[in-house]
Each structure stands twice: as C-alpha cells, then as structure tokens.
Amino acid sequence: MNSVPNINRRSFVIGTVAAGGGLALGLDLPFGGPQVIRAADGSPEITAWVVIRPDDTVVIRVARSEMGQGTLTGLAQLVAEELECDWSKVTTEFPTPGQNTARKRVWGDFSTGGSRGIRESNEYVRKGGAAARMMLVQAAANEWKVPAAECTAANSVITHKASGRSTTFGKVAEAAAKIDPPTDIKLKDPKDWTIAGKPLKRLDTADKLTGKMTYGIDLKLPGMLNAAIKAAPVFGAKLKSYEEAKVTGMPGVKKVVRVGDNAVAVVADTWWHAKTALEALPIEWESSENDKVSSETIAEVLKAGLDAEQAFVGNQGGDAKAAIAGATKKVEAIYSYPYQHHATMEPMNATALYTADKCEVWCPTQNGEAALAVAAEASGLPVAKCDVYKMFLGGGFGRRGRSDYVAQAVLIAKQMPGTPVKLIWSREEDMTHGTYHPVTQCKLTGALDADNNLTGLHMRISGQSILSSVFPARLEQGKDPATFQGLNAGGAEGQLGYTIPNLLIDHAMRNPHVPPGFWRGVNNNQNAIYLECFMDELAHAAGQDPLEFRRKILKPKHRAVLEAVAEKAGWGKPAPQGVFRGLAQQMGYGSYVAACAEVSVDKGKLKIHRIVAATDSGHVVNPAQIERQVCGSFVFGLGAALYGECTVKDGRVVEENFDSYNVLRMDEMPKVEVIVMPSGGFWGGVGEPTIFVAAPAVLNAIFAATGKRIRTLPLKNHDLKAA
Amino acid sequence: MARLTINGQTHNVDVEPDTPLLWAIRENVGLTGTKFGCGIAQCGACTVHIDGVATRSCSVPVSAAEGKQIVTIEGLAQNGALHPVQKAWLEGDVPQCGYCQSGMMMAVAALLKETPKPTDADIDKAISNICRCGTYQQVRTAIHAIANA
Questions:
Q1: CATH number of A9-208
Q2: Do B129 and A343 touch (CB under 8 A)?
Q3: I want to staple A265 with a disulfide (CB 3.0 to 4.6 A). Which of A65, A229, A422, A722 is the partner?
Q4: Starting at the edge strand that comes first in sequence, how are the strands of the sheet with B2-6 ordered?
Q5: Identical topology for domains B2-75 and B84-147
Q6: Residue A2 scores a pLDDT above 90
C-alpha cells in the first residue's frame, strides 16, 4: 500500500533534512561511525532508494510521478528485484523535490514525461536496490563473522548456508545502514528476473477502490480556504479591472485577489462559494493583439509554410527534389492536425501555504522539481525555504509537466500569509487554459519509378514548435528537434523506419499564440498519421499491398512489429463481412509499435471493431501493465482521431467542457489485442507509443472501407458515406 | 441548512439549497471519494446512488436530495467487506490513475443491481462515464467477471 502524501509528510522532510545532506556526510564525523539517515518513523535508510523497517517492511522511494501509468509499480519491481526482498512487504514513498535538492539530486530526475520513467532510470534504481542488498548481506556477514560471499539473500531473508544461520532484512537494517555503500555493483541479467518482468498487480490500487486515495483536489489542511480563478480568456491578454464590491458580501467569500497580470481569484471558505462568487464578479480584460485570431487565420499561416523557402531540415539523404522531378509517378497530399486538450479527469489544482520564511505546495505534478522552482520564483523565497509535496495525479498526459497552476496558487497564498489555500480550476477554466497539442500541416510528395519503387520523399511540416514555447533553450540554432519525432535518421529515441534513397523532411516553424505543450504521444501523433497514411497512399498508387509495400523498405525492428500485427489480425485473409483493415507502424520513445485496425462503415457510421497492437520495448518490466497502457493508449488516440479538436475564435479556445469536447467512451471502445514482443538489449517506453498508430491504422482502414482518404482530423468533421 | 442521509448517516449541512450535492458531499460532509470532473453531468466522476439510482451529483441540488438515501463510494463496501464491484476491480487491476473509478464503480454497481448479467450492449448503454486513462477494456472484463461469478 502506498503511503498517502499529506501534511504528515512534513515530518518526513524534517526527519531526513535534519539528518544531513546525504550518505557521504557520515564519513566526515570524527567518531561514532557513519550517521544513519532516517525516515520519518525512525527507520534506517539503507540507500536513498530503500528504507527497511524493523518489521521487515521495505519502503522503496519513487522519484517519478504516478499518474496512472504504473511507473510506481514498475520502478519498485526493479528495485525489489535487485534487493531480493519479499514483494508482499513492499510499500512506496515519494521523496520531495526539496529533499532531492538538499541531497544533491540523489534521486535524479523527477520529471515524468516522454515515457521516460523506467527507460531512463532503470539502471540507477536497480543499483540502489542492489547496493542495499549488498549492505544488508554484509551486515549479516559481519554479525556472523563470515565472508559476505558465503551469504545469500532471497525474499528478504539472508542465509549463511554453511552454518545454517539466517536473519531478515529488518533485523540487520540498522547495522547495514552504517556500512559504506559499495561502488562495484553488478546487476542481474534480465533473464534471471523473478519480480521484474512479471505481470504483477499495481501497488496503488486498494485506496482507489474505496475513495480513500487523496488526489491533489482532495487535500484538506487545517484552516484551509479555497480559491477559484479566471485567467484572461485570450492567451497573452492581461487583466484590466474587476469590481470586488459586487461579491464581497456573498456567502463564504474572504478575499478577491489579483493573480499575476492576467488573472483574478476569489478565495472563500468552500470552493463552491468561491466559484459562485467568481461567476458573479464583473471582470474586464485588456484588449490584445491576439483578439482576432481564429482557427481559420491560423490555418492560413500554416498553409503558407507548406511552400515556404526557409525550413529547418530534420532528416535528409540523397536528393529528394531531383528524385521527385524525375519520377515516373508523383504522389502528393496535404494533411493537417488540430489543437487538442489533455482533459485530465482531475482539473488543475494546487494548494499553497506561504509564510514569510517558508512556502509549501501540495500538488499533482509530473515535474516536482519544476514545480519547486516555480514555487520559489512565485513566492520570492529561496528554493531551500520551499518544498513541494507530490500528490497522486488524476491524469497527467503531459499537461501536469507545466507549473502555471502552481505559480497561481502561490501568488494567491502569498496574499494570505499563514493560511493554506487550495486553488481548483473549473473544467471551463481548464479547457480554455491548456497547453495544447500543437497544430501542424504537412505536405508530402512521393516519387515512384517505373517499377513502382519509392525513390524519393519530401515531407514538409509547417506549424507549431513545442520547444520554442516550453524550452526555448533546447532549440538547436532555431530548429526544434522534437518536431521530427519518429522521423529521425538514427538514434534510439524515434527513428524513421523506412529506407528511402532520396529523402527530405523539413519544418517551416509557424507559432500561433495558442500555447502548445507536450500531449501524450506528442509530435509522434501527427507524424505517424502523415507518414503512415501517405505510405498507404503510395502503396495504392503503386498498385501494391500496403503491407508488402512497407515491408520492402522497413528496417528490421520496425518491420517485425508490423508483421506481428498483420499476422495476428489475419492480414491477407478475408475479414468478416463489411470489415476492412488498416495498418500503421512507428518508433518513438525508444519503442517500436504497430497496429492493425478493423473497421466497418455502414451508411456513413464508423465502427472500430478490433485493434491488434504490437510493442517492442526491448525489455519488459511488467507485461500486465504494458497491456493496460496499450489499451489506454488506444482510448486516448482513438478519442483524438474521432473527436479531438480545440477551435480558436477571437483569440480564445471555444470548447469549454466535455459537451463540446467529446472523448472516447465505453460504447466506442474496440477490442484491443496486445502483443508484447521484447527483443531485448534496449529500454523503450510504453506509456505513449501505441497512441501514434491508433489514428493512422483506423484512417487507412476507413480508406479500405470507403475509398475516402481522410487527411484532416478529427473524424467528426467528415461525412463517411461511401464516395 | 440541508438534512442529508449519506451512507446511512444523517448530516445537517450548512449550505445554500441550490448547492450541488457533489460539493456538499466533498466540502461540507468531507467525503472526497466522489470526484469533480466537469460540473455538467457529462463525465460521471461524481456518480453516487440516490435511492439506489446512479446519479451525477454535480447536477443535483442538495434540496432535491434531502430525505433520500445517498450512497457514495465510501459507503459501497458493507460491514468492512468490499462490494463485488470493488473486489472485481481489485482482481482485474482495473484503475490506472483511479480518479474516475469512484464514479465508474458506482455506475457499474447500479447497473448490476438492475441487470445482473449485462450484455456488451447493456454495458455500452449504461456506462457512459469518461476515463481518460482508458480503462474501458478492463472495466468491461471486470463487469463480465462479476456477472459470471
């Protein structure tokens, strides 16, 4: 069972910070042996990742955020595997970003996005578990005065076979915590895993069944007030004025506060009172240069980029333009992809408590360290006087990597020192103040020779850069490398699967004022649609089977997942009456994925019957959780394909709630068959990749069913009655 | 002041009569298992039982809930024993982030009371709760598991 982060966590902070700045500190002590770092309950920390309680409970520290993707369980499995502990005794705990800072980032990166949780921290968390096991074994060996090499650890029990002695982790934890951590740590071969690699159940389920789980929105602190907020509806506009007197006498209202230069909040005893008063509050906004921007004007700007001379080159080989000029057959198509909202089920929220010398924040966040930095900046206090207590997230999907709502909560709390204030966004505030899936268009031009071989491809992307808005420092001489996700020439992250002799993939950056953000799957989502639907178009233009056409030019691992879904789905064999199939593949976040969709279109009504999906993530930490991530990815990706669209009018987002921004529900959920096919030797992510192939597989199946090539999303805007 | 009977207990709640039942439950009674998702009865995260009927509590004023039996997720388990839906959810490892699951389980519990062996079509019709993590396949499997138990 996971410990619920709440106000008690403060004692944990004090407990560890008071103990000093890390394991190395003990070495400086003149006498008394190395100092032990203790958890709040006094139990000794063996390594930063492992605390062992006297009753043999194993507390595993998890630095990444848990938002439903199961990383908490997977990371714990990796630590437990090397620790050789009893899995039934494992519990987990989130260290705070403030502790991480104070201890020189002993837990590494807290940021939880890009399907990175396991693939980027697997090695050091396993080492944290292995080191703790070695120290526990050493402590037992010391007690028995035998060589540690003669002792073994399994299931939280240490045994010295020769003498028949055994003890438990809990009994030697105190002694182990005083032993210098080893530097030479050998990790197990994944083929010998007994905890990792197994379809274990999640560790955090029980409290989610009874209403006990405390999400950020559920936090209660003594004396806490609640705030509702409205920020300028036009992105970039500022707050002009508001008439506080109109709401001051309303039930429960305590204060009306300006929040930064673009928002106003009402603070009240309950959130419902705060929200009711906010609705009644007359507010004026400054006019802005963005007041006239609409979806149509944005589309025009992007369209111009499709033929612009200047573009950043992402992937180039041979001479694509010459190949196209000399083609026997030239195929051209223009695609586009809309703004979308994350629509986490739990709206943005954060609770802040500010005093003159301390600022504390409780919030659901995908990036605790960024939230800490924002808390420090907004409070004006040094980082050392701030901390962030990470709550469970009611969904993240990339939205909670940003900390705008944290800054707002702190700015409100700063105007009410000593009083904790919980800020909750209404759904309408949430929908209209997102960091949206960016908009792009793409013009693809393909060259086929006389034998219908693909000799050249030019893929011109025009549209929004996420990094230029979120991390401008990561631009490379103006270029946003993330734009080319899944289209890169090489590398372990997101490599183009096709070998095409003459290739040019470039990006004309066009940045509208609507703020973009990382949206589960990110740029892979539209890149996979552009590439995989166009490959389908090329195959048909070449008069070839879409699978065969791809197979000839796919690299081995990309091909393997595609062939796996084709075989399981029965590609090349008759489908049920009225059912048609479509394929797609892509590599992203280190994993190779493919899907085959089966759809029918009856009198214009689309039904997605079945999805077969394959994932090669190299290693597999928990196949049961991968299956769930894949099923969930199709819900996310198919919902996007069917409905996902935020339109812009008068500079603001039009859709405000689920009545106008629909998502996939139970009745439209196809059966998803999951193939997990790890080929070993690398670590790929699983929280996002299969989202990429959801839409293109379905769009290609729709073409097979209707002959209609859908090149703009979402599908709700199209009439699918057969052409 | 409203008099609400929640999970068998009577609460005198000091709220305006038009306060949504959801917020009275969360903020005044202090039971936060019932979630806020949309406020317009679209997502179902706030689903509770009112006299046995699955109801989206964000769109019911407390005045309309007085004198009725209200059950929230905290009251689904009886005498310390998990409800069959909760057991099936545990067995099937259904929740991901879990935020929508209180409402989802309340909706499913009401469905199964009415239709103990629902078909896929029954499930599609009755369960329109939104889950953004995408647990629908696990939810459907768990419902059938209960029905076939």
A1: 3.30.365.10
A2: no
A3: A229
A4: B9-13, B2-6, B69-71, B47-50, B53-56
A5: no
A6: no
What values do phi and psi take at A17, rounded to 5?
-65, -40
A1 — pLDDT class (breaks 50, 70, 90): very low
Find the radius of gyration of the CA atoms of chain A.
Answer: 27
Residue numbers of A between 17 and 56 with CB closer than 8 Å to B: none
The verdict on A631 touching B (C-beta cutoff 8 Å) is yes
Peptide bond into A5 cis (omega under 30): no
Chain A interface disruption, residue of B56, B133, B138, B144, most A CBs within 10 A: B133
Which residues in A449-579 belong to E strands, given as ranges? 454-463, 502-509
Q: For A395, which of B28, B86, B133 is closest by C-beta distance?
A: B133
Once rounded to an integer, what is the mean pLDDT over residues B90-109? 98
Does the beta-carbon distance from B137 to A669 stay under 8 Å?
A: yes
| Top-confidence residue, A606 or A1 | A606
Q: Which residues in chain A have their CB less than 8 angstroms from residue B95's CB?
A: 68, 202, 205, 208-209
Q: Which of residues 87-116 of B touch A (CB under 8 A)?
A: 89-90, 93-102, 105
CB-based contact B38 A427, cutoff 8 Å: yes
Location of structure tokens 């949309």? B38
CATH of domain B84-147: 1.10.150.120
Give the type of residue at A300.
E
**Assigned architecture for domain A216-288+348-424:** 2-Layer Sandwich (3.30)
- Interchain CB distance below 8 Å, A666 and B93: no
The stretch B41-70 carries a mean pLDDT of 98
| CATH homologous superfamily for the domain B2-75 | Beta-grasp domain (3.10.20.30)
- The percent helix, strand, coil of chain B (3-state, each to 5) is 40, 15, 45
- State pLDDT tens for residues A576-603: 999 999 999 999 999 999 999 999 999 9
Asked if B42 and A344 come within 8 Å (Cβ–Cβ), the reply is: no
* Nearest residue in A to B75, CA atom: A210
- Average of per-residue pLDDT across A147-159: 98
Q: Determine contact: B59 vs chain A, CB below 8 A.
A: no
| Residue A240: band (very low, low, confident or very high) from pLDDT cuts 50, 70, 90 | very high
The 10 Å CB-count burial string (b at 16+, else e) for A263-276 is bbbbbbbbbbbbbb
Residue A13 has φ and ψ, to the nearest 5°, of -60, -50
pLDDT at residue A376 greater than cutoff 50: yes
Residue in B23, B94, B123 nearest the CB of A666:
B123
Over range A697-703, report the average pLDDT: 98
Predicted model pTM = 0.95
pLDDT of A722: 63
* Domains of chain B by residue range: 2-75, 84-147
Interface test with B, best of A278, A345, A625, A665 (most B CBs within 10 A): A345
Nearest Cβ partner for B23 among A211, A270, A667 = A270
CB contact B16 to A (< 8 Å): yes
Please, which pLDDT band fits residue A35 given cuts at 50, 70 and 90? confident
B9: exposed, middle or buried (C-beta count within 10 Å: 0-12, 13-18, 19+)? exposed
Looking at the domain that runs over A295-340+436-717, which CATH code has it been given? 3.30.365.10
CATH 3.30.365.10 in chain A: give the residue spans: 9-208, 216-288+348-424, 295-340+436-717
